[in-house]
Amino acid sequence: MFLSKLKAFQDVMIALILGAIFAICNADSIFARFRFYKVFIALRKPLQKDCASTVGLSLLCLALHGQWHEARWPGAALHLSSLAAWALYGVQTGPMVSCGIWAGGKNQMTKIQLMLRIIAQATGSVLAFAIFGLYFSFRFPGEGPFSHFFGLESLGAAVVAFIASVAHIRHREQHLRSEAAAAKTQ
After folding, report:
1. CA separation for the pair 98, 81 (Å, rounded)
2. Could you tell me which of 11, 169, 17 has the C-alpha nearest to residue 102?
3. Residue 79's closest CA among 159, 175, 171, 12?
4. Are 78 and 58 in contact (CB under 8 A)?
5. What is d(CA 169, CA 182) in angstroms, rounded to the nearest whole number?
6. CA 8 to CA 114: how far, in whole Å?
């Protein structure tokens, strides 16, 4: 009865929310058929942490966007806060940060691990954006929920997050190599 009174856009949002929750709950059985299942099992807890952190951080930035929906800075804040979350807590909540870690570091993560992290982050983002889109469609009918969220500011912040994560990983590895060399000489 409830679904029959919704608009088509709201039906799609509810389907996305349910689909994302289904994928999260059944990730074991979904990935069990693939060769990288053992990698998934080893990374299960960090992937769950990444997905949950992505949902939380995305919903926070989207709530800011809901409060000031003409502003463009909440979209940029999503990428920059993703970089801050990784630097402070070690949680990868954005694909640009994960790709930067992979591109900047040697032996940081394999391509399979990168793919699994991006899948977890994408699932969390889809869930957060669908929840916000559904909320926004009830709160402000007729307006697009993401009209100012994505733009050049957001793109610039994504590039900054990528470059900063590459630079941070390279700096950290160089520091570790110099410490290892100093320890060998002593």
Report:
1. 14
2. 169
3. 159
4. yes
5. 20
6. 35
Instruction: Give the angle subtended at the CA of 92 by the CAs of 38 and 169, to the nearest 5°.
Output: 100
Tens of pLDDT, residue by residue over 18-61, are 999 999 999 989 999 999 999 999 999 999 999 999 999 999 99
pLDDT, one tens digit per residue, over 127-166 is: 999 998 888 888 777 767 777 778 889 999 999 999 999 9
Give me the helices (H) in the chain, please: 8-25, 27-31, 37-42, 44-67, 73-89, 95-104, 111-139, 152-185
In the block, tokens 């697009």 appear at: 144
Token couple for 154: 């957001």
Look at phi and psi of residue 42 and say left if phi exceeds 0, alpha if psi is from -120 to 50, else beta.
alpha
